[in-house]
Amino acid sequence: xxxxxxxxxxPLFAVVARDREAxxxxxxxxxxxGDRQAFxxxxxxxxxxxxxxxxxxxxxxxxxxxxxxxAFVRAFFAIGRYDPxxxxxxxxxxxxxxxxxxxxxxxxxxxxxxxEAPEVASAEPDAESRAVDxxxxxxxxxxxAAIDVRYREVxxxxxxxxxxxAEIARIVDAPIGTVMSWIYRGRRAxxxxxx
Amino acid sequence: MTxxxxxxxxxxxxxxxxxxxxxxxxxSCTACSAQIDGYRALAEVLGxxxxxxxxxxxxxxxxxxxxxRQRKVRRDVALALAIPMALLVAIGVAAxxxxxxAIAEGAAGIAIWTAAAARAARFAAPLLSAxxxxxxxxxxxxxxxxxxxxxxxxxxxxxxxxxxxxxxSSLLAFLLPAIAGATDAxxxxxxxxxxxxxxxxxxxxxxxxxxxxxxxxxxxxxxAAGWSVVVAxxxxxxxxxxxxxxxxxQALASLxxxxxxxxxxxxSLVTILAAPAPTPAPxxxxxxxxxxPPKAGAVDRAVMGSDIVIREGETVHDVAATGxxxxxxxxxxxxxxxxxGDVRVSDTGHVFGDVSVAGGEIDLEEGGRIDxxxxxxxxSDAAQAMLGLAGGRRHAxxxxxxxxxxxxSLAQGAAFFVLALLLSVFAKDRINxxxxxxRKRPVESFGRGLVGVLAVPVLTVLLVITVIGILVVPFLWxxxxxxxxxxxxxxxxxxxxxxxxxxxxxxxxVCLAIGAAVFTVLDLxxxxxxxxxxxxxxxxxxxxxxxxxxxxxxxxxxxxFAYRSPAG
Lengths: 195, 568
What we know:
The complex is a heterodimer of chains A (195) and B (568). Chain A is mainly α and 195 residues long. Chain A has helices at 3-9, 13-22, 26-32, 36-58, 62-77, 88-106, 127-146, 149-160, 165-172, 176-194. Chain A has ten helices and no strands. With 568 residues, chain B is α/β, with parallel strands linked by helices. Chain B contains 16 helices and 19 strands. Classes of the chains: A mainly alpha (195), B alpha/beta (568).
């Protein structure tokens, strides 16, 4: 192998990718300038959040996977409109959320839409309480799937993703007061659904 | 006391401090306390829920979807513009009115620019998605320019324009590049595992292997195909091959498919690498991006209207910019192509491929490297760049089959025809002088061409030795290229004049069209390129003998306003 070939075989990108991580917003700016690798890295970084939101709104399964992938594809083609000074995650979650609502609209019955509860996975590692936790989680998932989609998404963003009211307001494109109201009502609806 | 309202209960459950009176009420009201406990429990349970696991290969599937969508966008753009253009041409033909004909000519111009943009967009991956409206504006601007030029052609060449001539020229100029642009996008869809520069036709191989290890199998395929193979990584079990006259690239692609590998080709050097790995479900809520793939996965960078900076340590594949500069501090594994901007390769920059600049300059700093060729042409030679775009480079049809090659050649022929037409209009006397020289002294012209072709590299070396002469080298090669093109225009005219086709209406435009068609056929048939090379020598020699097509004051060879009798 000559020197040129040896050089070309070195996986330089691992180093480059790590370097990019060091500076906040670098990946986003690179993706915005047409760097596909940077965009792929953003997909890897945010796929969990986006898929979780889609699964919560649409239910687990192919629909959630398709919606999450479609959200990233739409983001890629609209990346020129993304403001790198704002959090990418809020932007992509907003795209995902809007697309999921479109999907729900196509299902025609947004208000009473019943989604299949996402797969239950308890964070509790204790073996003895696992069965109990699973049962509780299953009930919560069932109740979440039964409530209004607006409440479902804000509760997901607030409790599962740990987003602030301001971030959620940006994602769902609503005033903070409205978001807070939805969260309150969502909790109440969830408790009623659990009774 | 009345109960605490629900919103306030939730606040208290979230940790808000009770206000005066609330604490006493909560101490005595079991209902309100129970509500708070219930909301606390709910929040705790919600916090323990985990998101549904991300499907395996999610990120990869996203990038594949993007790739598919981009191809569709390019195809749709080409077709969306081609269909209305076809209608306009049809209207122009049907109306037989000057204004309708003018519209048809403008449509032809739009089509040329559309095809050029489609080809450019194939190279520039996210260009269309991000800059679609700008490309449309560019196409319109190009169409306006084409409209003016084509009107001039009509005025000068055809005088009493006949609809048929316009139809022929419009269709030639419009349909073929448009179709080529569309099929080119389809050709690009093939063999995603074969990256880099792959020729349209690969050697066919016959090979029998029983239980060969992957590395050995790849080496055997490479040996049979005449490649130098570097196996950077390869996995998988033994394979059995029975290949009978299969194109080597197809054989390699199927092997790579089985092992989930990719191959990157530069010249005859083929490097086998691991394909970018599917992204596993990340273990935490903020997963790190996967290690970037090795060079086979290197991305292309393309922008319009702004600069591209490849930072030190950064590695990309191809780089394309329109209306902006490219500054390379890092590594470019493929080519750099810039229209309307400069390329600067800094002392840490390294470009493995070619650097081509139209309407700008190449600035290579000491310590920087450009391994491939360098060509910079001024904005006055934009037509040459246009030729490259509209005609397309043959090797761009990677993995393309017969139809891809056919349309590529047809597009080149159409581009040649249009540019030759322009040349014969705006430099009529010079073209006539060259034509006359070829007609009278073909052997001498051929000999002079041979000497000239040998002299150009020698002259280049001499100029490089003088150091200051390096500046002249690009102009020397551009001049040689333009001279050959001018000579080929004359040859096309002569071929058209002498072939017994359309004898009753042989105007200059018809002769050129016939000549361009013959060149296209020669480009497609086996050994035709030899004839074209001979014609190129003849063309170059004739231009040299006429001292770069200096007009000799003799009357035009072909009377473009009169019909030519079969007897000539």
